[in-house]
Design brief:
The complex is a heterodimer of chains A (about 280) and B (about 350). Chain A has about 280 residues and is mainly alpha-helical. Chain A has a domain of about 200 residues. Chain A has eleven helices and two strands. In chain A, α1 runs antiparallel to α8 and α6 crosses α8. The longest helix of chain A is centred in the first third of the chain and has 32 residues. With about 350 residues, chain B is mostly helical. Chain B has one domain: ABC transporter involved in vitamin B12 uptake, BtuC. Helices cover about 75% and strands about 0% of the residues of chain B. Chain B has a two-stranded antiparallel sheet with strand order 1-2. Chain B is globular and about 65 Å long. Chain B starts with 9 loop residues before the first helix and ends with a helix. The chains are: A mainly alpha (about 280), B mainly alpha (about 350). Chains A and B meet through α3, α4, α9 and α11 of A and α5, α12 and α14 of B.
């Protein structure tokens, strides 16, 4: 009983860190420019498919993963320049609405294009083995996910805390006009952060696919995960988002293991609904 | 132009409304030939989605409450009618009002909580989207209640005396669908007339005031929560009432009918395309999108991708509606003068 609890906890923690990355991808973009990027799930699946597909050329799955991440970075850059430039032209409440619907359209478009072209399910391959620590059997893939995700989130924090660009990003978060007075170009920062969020989503997807292969049809599920995590953590609060990701990852994995998968989904949504009702002012 | 309902071109808009309903009334005679069950079903789909789009217009267009769980509400209506009819062995017509009421009460609750908690558009959107997705999971997985992905066979909502009539006029294969079509058309006329009546009364004024400035509206004594809740209830009631007919047109209640992409996204495209806060916009939008879907049949599995692209373009460039924008351009470019000129030449010989 205790050993299975530890096993499930480790898996849940790994999954939670992935959710945290997805949530951070939403939070960064929303905090910076009030665009709720519904297309994040399509980015996630896109990175995985490119990674798997390119492995046939570059041989090693790790190289494939790099290609996938590079591809999703490029895709985000194109989306930012072509589509979001028009969205940023509107202001306030209207920008939020337009942002939701254009990224929703993008999500539907990308996900269904991928669904037409790639019909199987895709996962980056990794020779997973079981580590025996006393009674507890730990999946090596979970450890891999924990290591990579912690490193990525750590780098994200260091970037935001210590680099010039990171500080500029936080300045725009807090006060856009103030940032402009300091000579920061918010539009540039937004592009940078949007590409960064695409990369985060891509890494999250690739890590996820190591344990559970995904289909293009799953794209919307990842969007929903990302939004729920971001809401529960407070959409403008990166630390909160990461804590929420880990927490929800654990709760969801426990519920999945002991109660059943669809009830686990219902619990996940219910948490989001309760948080929305209790703290609607967080998101506006 | 967006305020066409509130007056201005009063007479023109009445004529326009009459014309649209006239076309809908004769459409089966023109479009549906003998044995053309497919076309009859398409016509039915237009009316069903027109009702959904009007409901969304009432709640989103008038009060800025973006309900993204129309699929779930339609599902609640359809599953309750199919389930209770099965379970109690009574006519679905008796269950229908209660099912609609149930959906309406859900809408009422959401509206009440949302306006009590002063939720912005985006919060309501995410809240209702979460409700939509949770309902999809329940429809899919609570198999003892919903029959899972196989669904529940459902065809009880027929109108016997009308079917006899249309069987003899058309064809026994399409008679049932045409009967439902005219029944829904009757419902649609009532909804639109009530909506128009409402917008011409103090409700219309109140909604306009709330939309422009909620706090100012409150300060002149408008009970903002009450008006929002009324809009939420009406919209959800309509969707809940039409939901069972939607299931009936497919002959089965299955989860795939009530998904976010299949209902909410499509209804949103219809409404924005046709024009929000116009009476005929949702109907024209619905007809256009259903027609477009048929035109895109050659694209097969790419159709959904095309609709995604359409959503992007609509919201980037045609936010106030394609038809209103077209009409605006028509007036700007002197389309009327052109027509007058043409008429004079024709009559002058």
């Amino acid at each position: 009983m205790i050993s299975s609890f530890v096993q499930v906890s480790i898996d849940g923690f790994a999954r939670g860190l992935i959710l945290a990355m997805l949530g951070a991808a939403i939070t960064l973009v929303f905090g910076l420019g009030s665009i709720l990027n519904i297309a994040i799930g399509a980015f996630t699946v896109f990175a995985v498919i490119v990674a798997v597909w390119s492995t046939t050329v570059v041989v090693h799955p790790f190289a494939g993963a790099i290609v996938g991440i590079a591809a999703v970075a490029l895709l985000s850059l194109v989306v930012d320049q072509v589509m979001l430039s028009s969205v940023y032209r509107s202001e306030g409440e209207e920008r939020i609405t337009v942002g939701i619907f254009t990224t929703l359209g993008l999500e539907i478009m990308l996900a269904s294009m991928l669904a037409v072209m790639f019909t199987a399910s895709y996962g980056v391959s990794h020779d997973s083995f079981l580590l025996h620590v006393g009674d507890v059997r730990i999946r090596s893939s979970s450890l891999l996910i924990i290591a990579v995700a912690s490193a990525v989130l750590g780098v994200l924090f260091l970037f935001l805390r210590n680099t010039y660009l990171g500080k500029a990003t936080r300045t725009v978060f807090q006060d856009e006009i103030g940032a402009q007075l300091c000579g920061i170009n918010p539009r540039r920062i937004r592009t940078l952060i949007f590409v960064l969020s695409g990369i985060l989503a891509g890494i999250a997807g690739i890590l996820w696919s190591v344990q559970a292969p995904m289909r293009p049809g799953d794209a919307f599920t990842f969007t929903v995960f990302a939004i729920i995590v971001s809401i529960v953590g407070g959409v403008r609060n990166i630390r909160g988002t990461i804590a929420a990701g880990v927490l929800l990852g654990l709760v969801w994995t426990y519920a999945n293991f002991w109660i059943g998968s669809w009830i686990a989904m219902v619990i996940l949504f219910s948490v989001a609904i309760v948080v929305l009702i209790l703290r609607p002012e967080e998101i506006s | 132009m967006t305020e066409a309902i509130a007056g201005g071109h009063e007479r023109a808009s009445s004529l326009w409304l009459a014309a649209v309903f006239g076309i809908l009334a004769v459409a089966p005679f023109i479009i549906v030939g003998p044995g053309a069950t497919f076309r009859a079903r398409l016509l039915l789909t237009v009316l069903i989605f027109a009702c959904f789009a009007i409901a969304l217009d009432i709640v989103f267009g008038q009060t800025d409450q973006l309900f993204l769980f129309l699929g779930a509400l339609a599902g609640v209506g359809a599953y309750s009618v199919a389930g209770v009819t099965d379970w109690m062995g009574i006519s679905p017509w008796i269950v229908l009002p209660f099912a609609a009421l149930l959906a309406g009460l859900i809408g009422l609750t959401v509206s009440y909580v949302a306006s009590r908690r002063r939720m912005t558009i985006i919060v309501i959107a995410i809240l209702t989207l979460s409700l939509q997705l949770v309902s999809e999971v329940v429809f899919d997985s609570w198999i003892s209640l919903t029959g899972g992905t196989t669904g529940i066979f459902f065809d009880g909502l027929e109108i016997p005396f009308l079917i006899g009539l249309f069987d003899s006029i058309f064809d026994p294969r399409v008679g049932g669908r045409i009967a439902t079509y005219y029944f829904l058309l009757f419902g649609l006329v009532i909804i639109v007339l009530l909506y128009r009546h409402m917008m011409r009364s103090k409700y219309g004024l109140a909604y306009r005031a709330i939309r422009q400035d909620e706090i100012a509206a409150e300060s002149v004594g408008i009970n903002v929560i009450k008006y929002k809740v009324i809009a939420g209830f009406s919209a959800a009631f309509i969707v809940g009432a039409v939901g069972p007919f939607y299931a009936q047109s497919e002959a089965v209640v299955t989860p795939s009918l009530f998904t976010f992409v299949r209902v909410d996204v499509i209804v949103l495209i219809m409404l924005v395309l046709g024009g929000m806060r116009t009476l005929t916009g949702p109907i024209i939008g619905a007809a256009f999108v259903v027609y477009l879907n048929e035109l895109l049949r050659f694209a097969e599995r790419w159709t959904t991708a095309i609709f995604g692209f359409l959503l992007i373009i609509l919201f980037l460039y045609f936010r106030e509606g394609v038809i209103p924008k077209g009409r605006e351009l028509w007036y700007e470019r002197g389309g009327q003068a052109l027509m007058r000129n043409l008429r004079m030449r024709l009559s002058g010989g």
